[in-house]
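User: Can you recover a sequence for this backbone? Please restate the input before giving your answer.

Assistant: Of course. Working from this structure:
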């Protein structure tokens, strides 16, 4: 089980061992299940585009079907997350911390909502943790489903298309870049984590006892 979980956090292993089926499941789970926040969404989407250019036999599909399939998985995942939030309601804020779930994840996403409103469903697509909890919080605060779907479709399209095309372009232009997948993944993790860490630090500073 531990080896399987490690593979689920390695974009290249997901694609090489699970192919298209596992790729789509991970994208769905990260955006549709509360426990999916640890999955490598950004790097997985980017690497899928890169490998589609450099090792097309791995996914056995073209760039357009790849983008469409991943977009559908991302949209469907958000819909599931939205309805989970509608069902859980405000009890989600009182849920105790567990092995995977932490209340601070909900707090960070709530603060992001307070600043960006419904655009969180678009901007949050590019940010770990917020990507997972944004659709759930949309359900909790009962954003209208039609409005939610507009943000959902736009966010999924921009996220999947942007990162996949970027990976595909780099793979097509510089095939040797495939040897640096590990460094690329680390770079993406650092870049996308910075806004989340800043939001968390601001929320923590506001709640400090000595803070007026």
């Amino acid at each position: 089980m531990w080896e399987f979980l490690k593979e689920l956090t390695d974009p290249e292993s997901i694609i090489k061992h699970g192919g298209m089926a596992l790729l789509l499941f991970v994208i769905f789970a990260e955006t549709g299940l509360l426990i999916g926040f640890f999955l490598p969404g950004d790097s997985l989407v980017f690497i899928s585009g890169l490998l589609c250019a450099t090792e097309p036999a791995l996914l056995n599909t073209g760039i357009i079907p790849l983008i469409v399939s991943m977009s559908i998985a991302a949209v469907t995942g958000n819909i599931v997350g939205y309805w989970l939030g509608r069902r859980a309601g405000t009890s989600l804020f009182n849920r105790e911390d567990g092995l995977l779930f932490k209340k601070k994840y909900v707090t960070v996403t709530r603060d992001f909502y307070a600043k960006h409103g419904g655009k969180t469903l678009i901007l949050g697509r590019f940010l770990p943790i917020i990507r997972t909890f944004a659709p759930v919080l949309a359900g909790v605060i009962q954003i209208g489903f039609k409005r939610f779907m507009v943000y959902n479709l736009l966010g999924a399209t921009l996220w999947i298309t942007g990162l996949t095309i970027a990976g595909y372009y780099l793979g097509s232009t510089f095939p040797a870049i495939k040897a640096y997948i590990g460094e690329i993944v680390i770079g993406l993790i650092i870049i996308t984590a910075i806004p989340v860490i800043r939001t968390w630090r601001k929320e923590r500073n506001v709640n400090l006892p000595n803070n007026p």
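That completes the design. The chain has nine helices and no strands.
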